[in-house]
Design brief:
Length: 188
């Protein structure tokens, strides 16, 4: 029997993304965000939700762009650091010993050490409550060659992205492949 646990921000899986922006002085900034996902196929878009209180919020509004760097599990400490410090107080790239790279297609930085980056142009904002939903059109995706499969697509088992559990406030790694989408269901 299912038990009610109330309304809370809980869904599985939740990504662990690093959103890159420039601040008002052109300084690279990055923050960890879990409220995000793919939100459209054509044009390809992602959404991320940030609180107005975050330093990155103003950077997205000002520059009309952001990046999403997807960290691998070996960068869990650096990724957490980017979520518990503020760009108002320090240079987060320096503090995490990470390298900012200026995107060639949008006015936003990304994290050199992370294997995948989505470069996004801001399309829409929606005030929801405590958070603002930012919808960004993916203008380009950069991927390390080492995480691509034979068809030049990112391989999740090579990327080893970090998953966030909102309930326990913990990070997890991905599991193994359990079936081919749009195919395994035919076995029912």
């Amino acid at each position: 029997m299912k038990q009610s646990i109330g309304a809370k921000p809980l869904a599985f899986p939740t990504p662990t993304w690093v959103v890159g922006t420039y601040d008002m002085n052109g300084i690279p900034n990055a923050m960890t965000a879990a409220w995000g996902g793919i939100c459209c196929s054509n044009p390809p878009c992602v959404s991320v939700s940030l609180r107005k209180a975050t330093y990155s919020y103003a950077g997205i509004i000002e520059n009309k762009a952001f990046t999403v760097s997807i960290p691998s599990e070996k960068y869990v400490k650096e990724t957490d650091y980017l979520g518990i410090t503020s760009g108002r107080d320090e240079n987060k790239f320096e503090g995490a010993c990470l390298t900012p790279v200026r995107s060639e297609v949008v006015p936003a930085p990304y994290v050199e050490e992370f294997p995948i980056v989505l470069e996004c142009k801001l399309l829409h904002t929606l005030e929801i409550g405590l958070h603002t939903l930012f919808v960004g059109e993916i203008i380009d995706i950069k991927a390390e060659e080492s995480v691509l499969d034979e068809n030049k697509n990112p391989d999740i088992e090579k990327i080893r992205p970090i998953i966030y559990d909102t309930g326990s406030r913990s990070y997890y790694s991905i599991g193994c492949n359990i079936g081919k989408a749009f195919s395994i269901g035919r076995e029912c």
